Amino acid sequence: MVQSLLKINARVIGTHGQMKVFNPISPQHRHRLSVRSTEGRRVEHLTRRSSYAFQLDAFTGAVLRGRPVLTGPTQAIANMTVIDAIYRAASMPLRQPSSTSEPS
User: Fold this and answer.
1) For the chain, which ranges sit under pLDDT 50?
2) What is the DSSP string of 15-48?
3) Predicted TM-score (pTM) of this structure
């Protein structure tokens, strides 16, 4: 039996149905996507690869093979703005830039 330390779920409700996602952050540890609509119910199980593996594929594809960057600087800044807001809401200090000095 697998014990989960982190449980993250999402539910989206629309005018014609709803979608439930179980564990979208760490799909390699049990996950499920279910859609219920006026046409019926569908449950899908996706690949068990980690989110990190997909991110690494996208990064190496862009750097080594010249593929398009899927998330550009505008999205990166928006993500960091949200992360900073979360830190502030939790009364945590914001991260500081790391040193840019070269190792000796």
Assistant:
1) none
2) TTEEEEEE-SS-TTS--EEEEEETTEEEEE----
3) 0.51
